[in-house]
Design brief:
single chain; 363 residues; mainly beta; 8-stranded mixed beta sheet; 5-stranded mixed beta sheet; DUF1668_ORYSA
């Protein structure tokens, strides 16, 4: 059984002129009571906890620069600015460590750890448009922070090969990604271009299919079930969901579009392409709240447990709301069943009020 990750991190960027980035730790231990209750308790509404740490970007000739944040194994967070400088924050040890400087800045980046969580691979979701009139590669500024005896080494890595059809700002954006091949390969799905694999041992890219990974953002491999889990990238079938797994009430009537970003279990390495084994609904607020979804995140905590975080905006108040929900996927039958012999168990939920138009990360 894998270890349990204690903290989920909420990073908020304060509005100018300060432009400070505050990080808050959401303790996941209280989301999974022991022993488990018969059903999920009503969600509690809370004030945001105080920041555990704040980051300020450097002043640049054209003003204050930006920052980006990514998870680096367990509970640690890597913060990097537009100069490529980076710091590693450890909430458990309550310390900060200087890290190697990236050769290129990271913005809207994705990151994955391989090598037992000791090496970090980071790349931008939006590729740099090449100057070559006949380009043969997309550069996402992929770099690795590789663990060595003396510390970490930053290693720039090759761009993804691709064929350009015509200029399109959305062409080639990374829509989903995961670690496969027993932890040795990074798979990414690029908009309109299929799915590519990066072999971390050889340092080579290859296209593995014209299909797309069937989740939005990051997919997480769960060894207990030998499947990958993510949030679906498109609307799911209502019949394929457990319609009683609602956040607030079993009597809530779902609205059109509510069943997007379902939790899904996927056999990523199935042939000829990934197969979705099961889907479940998770966070659907009552219609009378006037909430509409903005963004969703799936955070893997270990031991087949997850935190699902959803951001909502309200038509009735100048606020946004973030809902954190603890869920667990457990085996309940034969894997040949329609739901893969799995079920989702919902645990505690918490709601926090956010200022409107806030830039945020949930990692």
């Amino acid at each position: 059984m894998s270890s349990f990750r204690r903290f989920v991190h909420l990073v908020l960027r304060d509005n100018p002129p300060v432009k400070e980035y505050s990080l808050r730790n959401i303790d996941m231990l209280r989301f999974f009571p022991t022993p488990a209750s018969a059903g999920p308790p009503p969600p509690s509404t809370n004030n945001l906890p105080p920041p555990a740490i704040s980051f300020c970007p450097p002043w640049l000739p054209r003003g204050v620069g930006g920052m980006d944040f990514m998870l680096f194994g367990g509970d640690k967070v890597l913060a990097t600015d537009q100069t490529g400088s980076s710091l590693l924050y450890d909430p458990v040890g309550n310390n900060v460590r200087a890290m190697p400087t990236f050769t290129t800045s990271k913005c809207r980046s994705i990151s994955l750890t391989v090598g037992g969580g000791s090496d970090l691979y980071a790349m931008n979701t939006i590729p740099s448009w090449p100057c070559d009139p006949v380009p043969c590669a997309h550069d996402h500024n992929l770099e690795a922070l590789v663990s060595q005896k003396e510390g970490f080494l930053c290693r720039p890595l090759p761009p993804t090969p691709c064929e350009f059809r015509e200029f399109d700002p959305g062409h080639g954006i990374i829509r989903s990604y995961t670690v496969a091949g027993g932890g040795s390969s990074i798979w990414i799905t690029k908009e309109g271009m299929g799915t590519y694999s990066f072999d971390t041992s050889s340092g080579l890219w290859s296209q593995i299919g014209d299909w797309a990974l069937p989740f939005s953002g990051r997919g997480e491999y769960v060894p207990e079930h030998k499947l990958w889990f993510g949030l679906t990238s498109t609307s799911g079938s209502r019949e394929a969901c457990d319609a009683t797994n609602l956040l607030y009430s079993e009597d809530v009537e779902a609205q059109p579009g509510d069943n997007t970003n379902l939790l899904c279990a996927v056999d990523v390495e199935a042939q000829p392409g990934p197969v979705v084994r099961a889907t479940w609904e998770h966070v659907v607020p009552p219609k009378d709240l006037g909430w509409s979804p903005v963004d969703s995140y799936l955070i893997y905590l270990g031991s087949a447990r997850f935190c699902i975080s959803r951001i909502f905006e309200s038509t009735k108040a100048p606020h946004q709301y973030v809902v954190f929900t603890g869920v667990e996927v457990e085996r309940c039958g034969d894997d040949q069943q329609e739901d893969g012999g799995l079920r989702m168990v919902k645990h505690s939920s918490e709601v926090y009020v956010l200022p409107s138009d806030m830039i945020y990360w949930v990692i």
